[in-house]
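User: Predict structure, ligand protoporphyrin IX containing FE.
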Amino acid sequence: MPDADADHGVSGTVARLIDAGIAAGSICWEPAVQMWRVSGYEASRALLTDRCFVSLAPGRELPPGLPPAIEAAARRGIEVQARWMGTRDDAHLRIRAIGAAPLGPRPLTRIEPGFRARAKALLDALVARGEGDLVADFTDAFVREGFLDLMGVPARHRVTADRCRLDVDSYARHTPGSLLRAGMMQAAMIPIFEAMLDAPAPEGAVILKAAQAALADGRIDREEALSLLSVQVVAGISSSQTAVGELVLRLAADSELRAFAAADLGRLDRLVEESVRLGEHHFARPYIALDDVVLSDRTLPAGTLFLLNSYDPNRDPGQFPDPERFDSGRQPQHLTFGAGVRRCIGRHLVHLELVIAAEALIEAFPRLPRACLGLDSSVGAYARAIGLNPAW
Ligand code: HEM
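Assistant: Predicted complex:
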């Protein structure tokens, strides 16, 4: 096992993969964004795991002429978020380990019963009402409320937390306006996080408890604890809602797939990851080379930008034969959660949420109101989007 910290230079293997990718067209120069767009699986994986390529932090340019109080608030929010973005920084790995610990497969078994109970209650409520929408009333609420429970966000602050993650989603646009909104919403959360850190954590708030314990024994300082909570509240909801929503819509729309899963619920482990591989929640992020990349006929200097994404490599036919086919039996080593030292710390939680939501849907399906499933519902729209022609 190579020591990730030992050598930060670009390895010969990565340089060769980039060279081969350029020759084969799976790494192309995109003039519009001034970056090399990487679409091959091997090269994407190699770049993600080589510590010489790091994710480019969002810019810090706010719009000019802001009232001082607004500028100060937005800067404070951005600074708290940026603490996490340290690149080769040991601080990042230290904070990351504290965030990841409660989200490993074994610790998650403790939260499983609560998540199962919520999924069932939401579907039972839909059945009792006789109408509703599988995404709005089931999967969105299931993911959002479950995650905010793990965070320990009090009920009266959940609307603010939800707005915060929605505004930070727009961070990705990298415009001064989106940065301003994101910074201000994160600043608005800081006093809420401060109070949460100082009060006893509610039962089940495993993310908050981990932050409090690390703060108490000096593994992180207060700014780092704020950063940890701040990053997680924005990372843990939106993309998981998309992933869980998509899986549930697919299962609701596809009776064969539902029957396949219902015959042996153990099949869900692979099936849900296949849904993640093909899903819409893929990332596209700029990575910057910290060292020169020496190729056979040229050198890409340090500072060269690579646009990585998971959509293309997840459909690389060399890695996934017949890539557009939903194959519930394959073991997809997809890149949806990234790879390497920055790999998503929420991936086990997402897997658990997907399995629980799928099981709950399969169990409740025969009782669900027809209006939630028909052509005129989100299930019908999704079926049309993926080219299914289900017979309801
Ligand atoms: C379908 C849902 C999700 C997707 C697609 C997703 C995807 C990703 C990706 C692509 C990365 C960057 C990996 C890299 O740069 O190599 C990432 C990082 C991260 N994710 Fe997720 N994620 C999801 C859910 C979650 C959840 C539920 C959490 C809950 C805590 C979470 C927390 C994080 C954090 C904190 C990082 C930063 C890791 C670091 O910088 O070390 N994510 N995620």
